[in-house]
Amino acid sequence: MSRDIQLKERWEQLVNLLSNQFSQGEDLDLDAIIYLIGVQELGKVHRTYEKDEKLNLMHIAICRLLEPYGFYEFEFFDEDGWPHYKVKEELPALKAGEQSVLMKEAIVNYFIEREVID
User: Fold this and answer.
1) Half-sphere exposure (CA, 13 Å, Cβ side) for 24?
2) What's the predicted TM-score (pTM) here?
């Protein structure tokens, strides 16, 4: 099975799984899944977040997702428990479609690592 087909199948499996758990009938999009990962990484799942906090959660998720690719490195948790990352390598200039594939691959790998999907 080609890598692209396998990624597409795993992505669809993951979207269905997360949408069934966290949505009322509509498929979650890429941004919603990134947000969920940010909440997971912060570890404070049972609270409401302000708009700026939601953006910070998405930033945490992106840093965590791209850490295995060498773009970010975890630095520390602040006094409020928020993780902080430093840039190790600048992201290459990617077209929108290429960014989407990279993020989907990173998300799929994140959930494989956590044994949510295989």
Assistant:
1) 0
2) 0.91
